[in-house]
Please model this.
Amino acid sequence: MDARDAVDPVAGGRIATPLKPSDVSYEYTFRGWNSSFTNIRANKTLTAQYTSTVRQYDVRFWDGDTLLATVSAPYNGNAVIPFEPEKEGYYLDDWNPACTYIRGDTDCYAQWLPVIQDDWAAILASEDNNTYKSQYSIGDIKMLDLGSEGSIAMQIVGFDKDTMEDGRIAPISWIARNAMKTARLVKAIELAREGGIDSVTYNGLARELGMRPQSMYRYVPDLKALRVALLGGFLNELVDKIADATEGLAPVDALRTFAVALYDECHANRCYYESFALMHRYEIIEDLREPLTRLVELARKPLAGIIRDEGEIGRYTQLMMAVILGYAQMAQKTFVVESLADNRETYVKSIEEFIDGMAGASR
Model:
């Protein structure tokens, strides 16, 4: 039988463009068929192929009944309001629910804390005349003007609890609302880089900061929160580096660069690899879903541009991640070869063969 060419029924107007319903994570756009319409010699079944894009959701920011802004956020991503809301006499503390790990259209409501209107002289006077407990409440905010450096939100966290350097009890205990959290995380990162993530403990961090462990709760509520912040910081830093390295590259080049960059970065900073290893033992994988989803998407996106079979993209993405992290683990423990250079050479060669074989099979 002579081979003949068939007509694409979509291009020929015989059928409507195939549709695939979106799911909670992705939306799908028809991109063609899994085989060609040329050189037909027998009955042939073709399957529609789709390009997947991360689904976007609306996040609405409210102040009570007033809608402040609406932004778009990707599935499992974060939403940021495009301006800093202000309310006279109040300090914007947070949003409820938090604008993170977005998995559907979300309404976030501003959480305000009252700002003390008295000046600092009046606050000090209240300490002298012992009226501070009746004038102020734990949780109240007072803005500290730093001139050209901006301002810091100081918050009351206790009365008659902390001992000052001269031995007297401080009438009012204050913390810098955001700066103190940042300072403690910076110190935790320093300790992790020096001794490994597992070396960072709640009591150890308090000791390094010259604090009592029971005072740490004001800034980091527990060990799990510390670990989530620490590993999340390292993973987001890693993902940002790989995203920069792969931006604008063709699918095959992007996948190759992704694999080599992930391997190299895990060796340049052991905290990156330790983050993958320890998230299981710490049982905080779900808390780190946002940076993990971003990382996997950096592999899945170029794979979607290489593999024709939509159903195979997820499988190859998992396989790719397993190969990369498996090599990183073996190199960390020197299971394969003696020198890191030789191991990297073997790894790069394996990745090249893997990608070339996968691209060839999908043609």
